[in-house]
Write a structure and sequence with these properties.
Elements: H1 13-31, H2 41-44, H3 47-50, H4 53-61, H5 64-78, H6 80-92, E1 94-97, E2 100-103, H7 104-112, H8 117-151, H9 157-165, H10 169-196, H11 204-207, H12 222-232, H13 236-241, E3 244-245, E4 256-262, E5 266-271, H14 277-295, H15 308-321, H16 325-332, H17 338-365, E6 370-372, E7 388-390
Parallel strand pairs: 3-5
Antiparallel strand pairs: 1-2, 4-5, 6-7
Length: 393
Amino acid sequence: MRGTIPGYLRPHVERIEAYSRETNLDVYLRSSGERTMSDHAIHGRYPELNDARLFRMALDAGDIAYARALLNMCLMARLVDANDRLAAERLKVTVRLSGEDVGVGRALAAWRTATSELERELAAEALTPGLTMLAAAQRRWLDDYDSVRHGLGFDTQADLIGAVHEDVTGWLRKAERSLEETRESFIREHAEWRRRDGRGDSPTMVAIPVSNVPVPSGAAGSEAAVRGTVSAWGFPDEAARIPIDLVPRPGKLAGALCGRIDPPRDVRVTGQPTGGSLEYALMLHEFGHGLHFTIGPDRAFDMFGDDQGITEGFGRTFETVARQPRWFELFVGITLGEEAAARLHFNAVMSARLDAVQVLYEHRLSPARSIPSRSTSTHIGGRSALRCRRTSR
């Protein structure tokens, strides 16, 4: 599927597949709330895959796709304690929502998927103290991550991104231009939605216009709608065999996730059962990933180092149809009004803008002054160093 496997990776393929199975299952179980803490023993069983030596070889060879995947293994192994500390803090924090004590993940999902101003305001009021309590733990995690990244030879996050994604300057400039060119029209539309919703000068948590359209109880659920869509698009076998978990659990993530545990055989999707149009969009997006992981590979290594743009293309293609009125008629059994359809469209635009702003903000916080050269091997993790060549940004 991926052509010739580089010589330095060929002896490790079976171990890479085994390590990926174990870590991906661990991530899935924690994201679904079926496991609260990481299985630390996993990473100790594969030291030659997470000690950064293979990562350095991939960088030196210019195999950026493999370098990204190997970097992920290094980060997971080094951040396992930090991840558990943050997860433990999240489990300890509960908030009072609709007369019930719930975890932050469930409350955050309720805020994201509110279908009325009252729901959003109540969720925001419940969330605010919980998020405040978590802020210190999140800052500690960032400090841990900074230390790990520095230990791998990257002074800034932008340096790391520049190494495993090459020069992203062109994309950043294009994003800045697009944001600026559409800024005035977006602000006008945002203000109009806030006016319609009676938001005025509301605080940040409730300033975002409601864009999650309610779905009547008699409509098809998100699982049925997702499987029906994928079958109609010509993939009935995949639609039937990928499990979808919508069971609410303490510690479950706020959104949805596709676990590619052993593609193409074991691929699963989990998500919060929240109701409303956003649940449908999230589940379609993650099931799109699942489709990618099941129709392409012959074995798990085929997906090792796959291009993020391809798998996100699958996800976004399916997610986009969940914002079309015709899709809701065909697969959910409801008719969206003009305002509901406009809300869904505005949400898509706003989400894209927020993604771009976040990336730009991170780069400005830690501007890249250098791009690590893949032709020179030096120090990673105390063994050698990535010598950097100066470039203007």
